[in-house]
Amino acid sequence: MTFKTNLLAATAAAMVLMGSTAMADALRIGVEGAYAPFSKKEADGSLSGFDIDMAHALCEKLERECVLVEQEWDGMIPALIAKKYDAIVASMSITEDRKKRVSFSGKYYDNLSRFVAKQGAEFDMTAEGTKGVKIGVLRGTTLQCYVEKHFPEADIRLYNTQEDVFADLTAGRLDLQLSNTLGALDGFLNTPQGEGFAFYGEDLDDPACLGEGVGVAVRKGDPLAQELSAAIKEIRADGTYKTINDKYFPVDIYGN
Predict the structure, then answer these.
(1) Average of per-residue pLDDT values in the chain
(2) Rounded CA gap, 1 and 144, in Å?
(3) pTM of the complete model
(4) What ranges make up the beta strands (E) of the chain?
(5) What is the Cα 71 distance to its own chain's centre?
(6) DSSP annotation string for 29-43
(7) What's residue 186's pLDDT?
(8) Domains (ranges, CATH) in the chain?
(9) For residues 162 and 179, is the Cβ–Cβ distance under 8 A?
């Protein structure tokens, strides 16, 4: 083998090694892009929102390249397990049921949930009183668990995106919808689409369904969960979290 051939072989090996290292340094984050103000797609196709900014901030703390991978909500956990990405930053509540399949970081915000209906609407919010009432909710969420548990006789309609839930509420195809309180406020009620609608009832409380805050999901047993927990604490301490929070919300959504 000539010196030139040796050199070419060594260069090729080095490039493969560099490529592998770059791939190892990349952190692939599963995001949704249809849950404003936490994640949404801009007109130019770029992603923005609280979750998106959080994902970038966490990658920066871990000194990893951030690669965002879009995924519809109901396929989030299956795609994580299938190694389509390494972590989920998509307003996923930490629940006992989900912890059987994935591991979570510590929370990065508290999840408050509330119904929205037409202004002046009145419902008997009991299992019997909501029989036949059309309630829209995002498929595969803690909110689906809540509605099915508390209002089993309702006409529960499941959706793949929150945008579709709001669209059907506006069109009169739903009587009520249930979603994250802050998401409903900034993503619907404070927009022209939400004119004539209002919150119905108070924030809900059911830890068995609604979980214990929102965290970053990783594959079961992955030590990345501990790294992300530490990174969340760091961005809370150095002011990064406050900067991101204040960009979207008038109050600290982290909670106690």
Answers:
(1) 90
(2) 66
(3) 0.74
(4) 26-31, 34-35, 39-41, 47-48, 65-70, 87-93, 102-109, 113-118, 134-138, 155-159, 176-180, 197-200, 214-219
(5) 11
(6) EEE-SEETTTEEE-T
(7) 82
(8) 9-111+211-248 (3.40.190.10), 113-209 (3.40.190.10)
(9) yes
